[in-house]
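=== RUN LOG ===
request id: a7f3
mode: sequence -> structure
chains: 1
length: 301
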Amino acid sequence: MNVLDLIGDTPLLSLDNIPGKPRGVRILAKAEFLNPSGSVKDRAAKGMLLDGIETLKLTKGKTIIDATSGNTGISYAMIGAFLGHGVKLYLPANANGERKRLIRAYGAEIVETDPMESSDGAFVAAAKEYASNPENYFFPDQYNNPVNPKTHHETTGPEILAQTGGEITHFASSLGTGGTFMGTARKLKETDPRVKCAAIWPDSPLHGIEGTKHSASAIKPGVYNRAFVDQEIGVSTREARAFARALAESSGILAGISSGANVAGAVKLSRVLPRGSVIVTILGDSGSRYLSDGLFAGPAD
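=== RESULT ===
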């Protein structure tokens, strides 16, 4: 067994104690923070890098290069170290300290980009560097690589179906690259067209929910497909922070701010659903990555 074998097959947790959820509706959460680097992004990073090797695009001596808001970069850094490849990552300068320290701990290089341009600016910079030296790099391009959602179609979706015994009625999750949502939603709907999928978005372009995009203002990822979105749910940064704290304080689950957003959106959805509904959401990363941000230090801002 090696570190790649530890990716996936995460448990599905029942959020019975979460505040605001009505009786008769279940909210279940996929504990993706239990992946070896601490986030759901291990799945897509593994899929894209192994695909690069299989297609002979990632060959000996090439450096892995991509843009990231943090979590995928940590996954690239971990897997790149295991595979013996250098990793060069472009991320906004305001990415938090824990992410940067974790990336560097695996020996990867960081290039910081303009924080006002967010992850879109990091993507443009990474793509430009790759275009200038394509022979030196492998560019997975997580925002547009079809292997990203394909990985979730082949792993996350089937796991959820098996773990719920096919009883899932709704899937609710935020979007960053779109891979987790699109791949999972596609598998769920192929298996049972009655499953409804809700996309959770920050309710403002100026938000603090790391790893997610504001639907109206951000560049839509190439893997995004509106056909798999049955409804959209807006969540504020305040709500995301409050539910991240509620996960820790009511359920003993230390998860990050995007997880808080997902649970906030799932609770909003639960309030308009009939009894017997089963909602599944994603706990994308560990709350240990947000300790320096004050996420758990006091009341939500």
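=== NOTES ===
The chain has two domains: 3-40+151-293, 41-138.
The first strand starts at residue 12 and ends at 14.
=== END ===
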